[in-house]
Specification:
The chain has about 500 residues and is mainly α. The chain has 3 domains: about 10-235, no CATH class; about 255-320, no CATH class; about 350-494, no CATH class. The chain has 22 helices and 4 strands. The protein has helices at about 20-25, 35-45, 50-55, 70-95, 100-105, 105-125, 140-145, 145-165, 175-180, 190-220, 220-235, 235-245, 265, 275-285, 290-300, 330-340, 365-375, 400-410, 420-430, 440-450, 455-465, 475-485, and strands at about 275, 290, 380-385, 390-395. The protein has a two-stranded antiparallel ribbon. Strands 3-4 form a two-stranded antiparallel sheet. Strand 3 (about 380-385) and strand 4 (about 390-395) form a beta hairpin. The relative contact order is 0.08. Bound molecules: zinc ion (2 copies). The site of one zinc ion has 7 residues, from helix 14. Keywords: Metal-binding, Zinc, Zinc-finger. This is MYND-type domain-containing protein. InterPro entries: Znf_MYND.
Length: about 500
Amino acid sequence: MASAIKDHTAVEKPKDLPPLLSKKFNITDVKQDALKWNKEWEAAIASSTAADVLKEISHFLDDSFFTPKDIELFHEDLRSVQDRVAEILRSLFNEGHFDTIWLLLNVAEKRRHILEGLKGASEAPTLWGQDCRALCPEVTVSNLLSQGGKGFIDFLTRVLEISESSIKPAFLPNSWWEQASNLPNPWNKFIDECFPLIEHHASHFVLSSALSIVGDITNRSEGMKGVLHIMENTEGYVARSLAQAKSTFRDKPLIRCENCTKTPEDIGQGVRFMVCSVCKTKLNFEVHYCSQSCQKQDWSLHKKACVKKPVSKGLRGTKGDSLWAFGDSDPAVELIRNLGKKEGRGLTSLRDIGVNPCKGKRSPAAERQAEMLEANRNVDYFLFTASGETVRFVIDDPGARMIFRINRGVIMTQTGDTGLDAMGEYMVKLMSGYPGLSRDIILKQLCEEHGADTTKQIVRLERKSRECGKSTFIEGWLKDSSNVFGDWAWLGSL
Ligand SMILES: [Zn+2]
Ligand SMILES: [Zn+2]
């Protein structure tokens, strides 16, 4: 009888599996070179099948190695780790800015945190240490860095959802698991024992990577400083929309069929796209087709430029689209694209960030401003002297111009009231000394256009900028954001 009573004070730890796969794949020691270690693991994961992995471990997964007691302990331990993970993720996501901070980090920093997570998971007291990686093809640096780091946020979100959906040890199915469940006997009888291996690894990965990020935020580490600066000095929506834009950047242009506009992924099944061979050889220019029939159908259009000029339709996301680096989901980019479309031409410069139709009701003064701006795309704003003469305000710096115009778009379409202060402060600073203009004249005009509250908003921002030692919000923001976005040189191509 006595032996059946569970001894809660004893320290019990399930047995460990010996390292099998890390040995088999000859993986470098993580302490020696973490990047190399990860690269070798990613290659091993990509080249091995679920059956390969199960073959290695199957004889450890039957009753001769683990007793039911071991398994029970293992499940208890897993659930307690999952509870901790859920608690941390909930608090991170409730803080509100976690995903924005993450997306704004530069890629080297993101990679470092993910590596910390993987290292932590491999060193954690799980049953199988780093060998668990072979069962978790989704938890890789390349996967989690996908879409500018959105892959990581999506993963955390799914982990949290699944942990909250059950009080039992939660299971997030992955592609390895799906492959393994479709294997014939005897392999598929072991997969139930594999789920704690997968989940333990995933949970410890989340714990370690989150700890690494939170540590950097708390200590204002070198790599985190620039991002925190933006978060503290920017209206939330600007930081959010920039983070969003960053996450949808493409690293290379898409290939689309010039006729049906489909991408190779749309068609699938390893389809080989063709190029117009004369354009390729004579102009070194590629016009893509998914099939001969598409090429035939498009000929009447393509023949006008074929061999003469490197001209394509500039389909969305392809090399010929000046905004190819941007993904599809960013509203600011959509705004720019649609503008180009409305005019019946592609966007060729920042001047095309116009003001768009108003969603609310503009004052008569703002209505006049919008009409003048639409008619004069080179001008960033029209100011008026006391005697009613028009002064064209034009910004040279491409970064400042973009921020100014995004703010302008929000205000003139009345889709939000933030950004008016930044726009006003910038014009007051740059234009007050202009012949015929003064601070008061500019403020009076802006109040007429955007409401009596405008001056108060601008003065408040001026005070804030002074306190932060900045000339204006827009200039300070550009300086800070260069840590995250580089020098805005990419805008030069617009
Ligand atoms: Zn086609
Ligand atoms: Zn051609």
